[in-house]
Amino acid sequence: RLRRHGDIVQRTVGCYYVVQGRADDTMNLGGIK
Q1: Cα(20)–Cα(11) distance, rounded to whole angstroms?
Q2: pLDDT score, position 26
Q3: Measured distance CA(1)–CA(13) in Å, rounded
Q4: What is the dihedral of CA 31, 25, 7, 11, to 10 degrees?
Q5: How far is Cα of residue 30 from the mean position of the Cα atoms in its chain?
Q6: Alpha-carbon gap, residue 32 to 9, rounded angstroms
Q7: 17-22 and 7-11: which strand pairing?
Q8: For position 22, what pLDDT does the model report?
Q9: Which of 12, 20, 27, 32 could disulfide-link to 8, CB 3.0 to 4.6 Å?
Q10: Among 30, 33, 26, 32, CA closest to 7
Q11: What predicted TM-score, i.e. pTM, was given to this entire model?
């Protein structure tokens, strides 16, 4: 199973992962969006 966390992650040719940021451009702090 994959865990979904709302971040955009890209895998490069050398099998490295690059986190590009939030998919929805918001942060959920304390359950408030």
Answers
A1: 11
A2: 59
A3: 23
A4: 180
A5: 18
A6: 24
A7: antiparallel
A8: 64
A9: 20
A10: 26
A11: 0.35
* Residue whose entry in the numeric block shows the structure tokens 């929805």: 24
Q: Pull the structure tokens for residue 25.
A: 């451009």
The pLDDT tens digits of the residues spanning 7-24 come to 677 888 888 888 776 665
The pLDDT of residue 13: 86
Q: What are the structure tokens assigned to 6, written together?
A: 């709302």
What end-to-end distance do the CA atoms of the chain give, in Å?
A: 26
| Residue at 18: amino acid letter | V
- The encoded tokens of residue 14 equal 């050398």
Amino acid in the structure at residue 23: A
